[in-house]
Amino acid sequence: MIPTRSIEPWIKEPLERFVAEAGARLTLIMTTAGQVLAQHGFTRAVDVMAAAALGAAIHSSTREIARAVGENEFKALNHQGIRHGIYLAEMHTPRGRLLALVVYGTESSVGLVQLFYEDLVRELREACPREERRKPVIASNFERELDESLASLFRR
Amino acid sequence: MSLVNFTTREITCKIVYYGPGRSGKTTNLQYIYGRVPENRRGRMVSLATQTDRTLFFDFLPLELGSISGFATRFQLYTVPGQVYYNATRKLVLQGADGVVFVADSQARQLDENVESLQNLQANLLDQVVDIRGLPMVLQYNKQDLPSDLILTPQELDDAINFRGVPSFPADALRGGGVFETLKGISEQLLRKLSEESPT
Hints:
Radius of gyration of chain B: 16 Å
Number of helices of chain A: 4
CATH superfamily of chain B: P-loop containing nucleotide triphosphate hydrolases
Strand content of chain A: 25-35%
Oligomer: heterodimer
CATH class of chain B: Alpha Beta
Radius of gyration of chain A: 18 Å
CATH topology of chain A: Beta-Lactamase
Order of helices and strands of chain B: EEHEEEHEHEHEH
Distance between the termini of chain B: 13 Å
Largest sheet of chain A: 6 strands, antiparallel
Number of domains of chain B: 1
Largest sheet of chain B: 8 strands, mixed
Shape of chain B: globular
CATH architecture of chain A: 2-Layer Sandwich
Helix content of chain A: 40-55%
Number of helices of chain B: 5
Helix content of chain B: 25-40%
Structural class of chain B: alpha/beta
CATH superfamily of chain A: Dynein light chain 2a, cytoplasmic
Strand order of the largest sheet of chain A: 1-3-2-6-5-4
Order of helices and strands of chain A: EHEEHEEEHH
Number of domains of chain A: 1
Strand content of chain B: 25-35%
CATH class of chain A: Alpha Beta
Distance between the termini of chain A: 41 Å
């Protein structure tokens, strides 16, 4: 079974379908700041957090270059290696701009990824709930737990 | 914006270390990376020039542990300090939940500190973020240098701490103040999450 991890539940089904249809090895859906909202596929060879941070950085800098040459945005970016390729693209949803980072192997192709990416974007737009109201998350007396966590982190 | 997963009870926050060139932002992350157990941190990614100056950013994910029942993760970033790299600095700042401003305590670097703070404010405004609402702490690094070369924490507070945010003297190379700074920004971030009111 291919592992899925989804912080936003509405992403899970469209993402799983996309990975299966496009033959991708791994796909991350993330914010433009590089925080992963959902991932599906094999992550053994990939440090997901580092890949997300780098993907967001590539996307941000590409967007700025697009502006510099008078484009609103470049829709997608593809890099093809010998064993793996990556496809990085932005989508607009009711939750704002999100990014998809798709890692695919020789069993797929950029054409196949592009073909099903349009479906993924449409399905995510349909499934996406409106922005939720922000509520307090952390109890007000968090200091002791924070002290303990940091002390153990720094082995004090 | 902090990412909160109510199902798996996880929080992820982005903290950006900002400041003038060679003030010690990368050194802070390197010290943390070297000090934290392997199972509590991810890989440190550094996009640097051949001379080890930060070109785009450094990135270090940390597992803080459980706070209020939430597995809490911090993603630490640095920006390139050199004036030339403002475009990339802006990009790294996107979506920051909190900022650690690393100031260089050397008296001759005071103008660079002020300029970098102004640059931070301008870059945040560009992203429609009011610096007054953003969790922030100041770190006065290089306090280990001879006293005739540096300003004291009190003098630096008077000169650049306009908002009266928590400030920490540091010697990031040997780790002095690094922990206290991270603790300071963590408290501010979590305080904000504990007070967040419906928008």
